[in-house]
């Protein structure tokens, strides 16, 4: 990850999580929380527990500290390799899953299946990633950077239903999308 302040300059996390339907009473699982910018924004909008997972202990510590500074008591920042070991949350237990800037990993469909497993029927998935554009100041190399159409196909392969693309007007370099685990009361 680049320097924390530099990374933060690319996003308006409050705007992004709100636009991607991350709010309400249920638990949220964030796959790869990094410095916790989106963790804190989401934790302010939900009354359930915000499970922020990362393989890197420094990122977990940064997230826990950011949540404490914000006075949030509903953040569980946990060190976890969710590719090797799964996310550790029970089946159908969450109302929202976040896959933000992570779908360039080697096995995106496996990760999407893990997110799907944890969501209750009707639970939502928010995805963002860097636009596929040479001008972006950061982001994975274009060779491995997934386009939104590709991410949508992967998510559908994992069982999700497409809800909508979301224009992240608050953030120039990223696209956003909302999907849903089918079922629930609609
Ligand atoms: C590019 S960063 C994005 C962080 C955050 N979602 C954001 O957008 O600010 C990806 C994060 O995923 C974490 N990560 C990558 N592979 C992982 C794995 N297998 N298990 C847990 N975390 C992982 C990295 O340590 C890193 O913090």
Task: Write a concise keyword list for the protein shown above.
binds S-adenosylmethionine, Rossmann fold, 7 helices, alpha/beta, 186 residues
Structural commentary:
It is a single chain. The protein is α/β, with parallel strands linked by helices and 186 residues long. The protein has a single domain (4-180), classed as Vaccinia Virus protein VP39 (Rossmann fold), CATH 3.40.50. The chain has seven helices and seven strands. It has helices at 4-8, 13-19, 37-45, 57-69, 82-85, 108-118, 148-157; strands at residues 28-31, 50-54, 75-79, 94-100, 119-130, 161-166, 174-180. It has a seven-stranded mixed beta sheet with strand order 3-2-1-4-5-7-6. A hairpin with a 7-residue loop joins strand 6 (161-166) and strand 7. Helix 2 (13-19) packs across helix 3 (37-45). The longest helix has 13 residues, at 57-69. 40% of the residues are buried. The mean pLDDT is 94. Bound molecules: S-adenosylmethionine.
Write the topology of this structure.
Layout: H1 4-8, H2 13-19, E1 28-31, H3 37-45, E2 50-54, H4 57-69, E3 75-79, H5 82-85, E4 94-100, H6 108-118, E5 119-130, H7 148-157, E6 161-166, E7 174-180
Helix pairs in contact: 2-3, 6-7
Short description:
It is built from seven helices and seven strands.
Beta-strand residue percentage: 15-25%
* The top level CATH class name: Alpha Beta
Provide the helix percentage.
25-40%
CATH homologous superfamily designation: Vaccinia Virus protein VP39
Give the number of DSSP strands.
7
Low-confidence stretches: none
Spatial order of the strands forming the largest sheet:
3-2-1-4-5-7-6
